[in-house]
Amino acid sequence: MPLYEHVFLVRQDVSSAQVETLTAQFKAIIEGDGGTIAKAEYWGVKSLTYRIKKNRKAHFSLMNIDANHSAVAEMERQMQLSEDVVRFLTLKVDAHEEGPSAMMRSRGGRDDNRGGRDRGGRDRDDRGPRGDSRPPRAEAIPQAATPPAATPPAESAKETAE
Question: Phi first, then psi: what are they for 104, rounded to 5°?
């Protein structure tokens, strides 16, 4: 049977328990037609880049599906009828990803994703003398020699008076 990755977004004012109920309903549709759900992940409430059906946030969920196209088409039809589902996307894949998805792995801090690099892509240990990631300045060019400063007129007047 073909393999699919399916992500769907649910309105933000729905509780996470209701999202789990919707996920169970969609699993039942797939399993009723002889398919299986290899993995189901709840990614939480996330901000949307732009408004979708007057929503600024949504609950995100992922399902890895091993089922016939007819089962997936029926699940998508049920999602279109549901007022709680804002958007969904189903992709046919060659193989399911093992372990947690990229969204679940990226739950750490920002530093975890960069692997010890700054925004410019340089290692943090390669910082310049100012503590930033810019390369160190070149040696200062020596300036032309200036003549010694003349003594102030008041001091020279004292010396002549003595």
Answer: -80, -30
- 3-state class (DSSP) for residue 79: helix
Q: Domain 3-93 class?
A: alpha beta
Q: Are strands 85-93 and 36-52 parallel, antiparallel or unpaired?
A: unpaired
What is the C-alpha separation between 144 and 32, in angstroms, rounded?
88
Tokens representing 74 are 């029926």
Quick one: DSSP state of residue 130? T
Domain locations in the chain? 3-93
Is residue 3 pLDDT above 70, yes or no?
A: yes
pTM: 0.61
CA atoms within 13 A on the CB side of 24: 6
Q: What are phi and psi of 103, to 5 degrees?
A: -65, -35
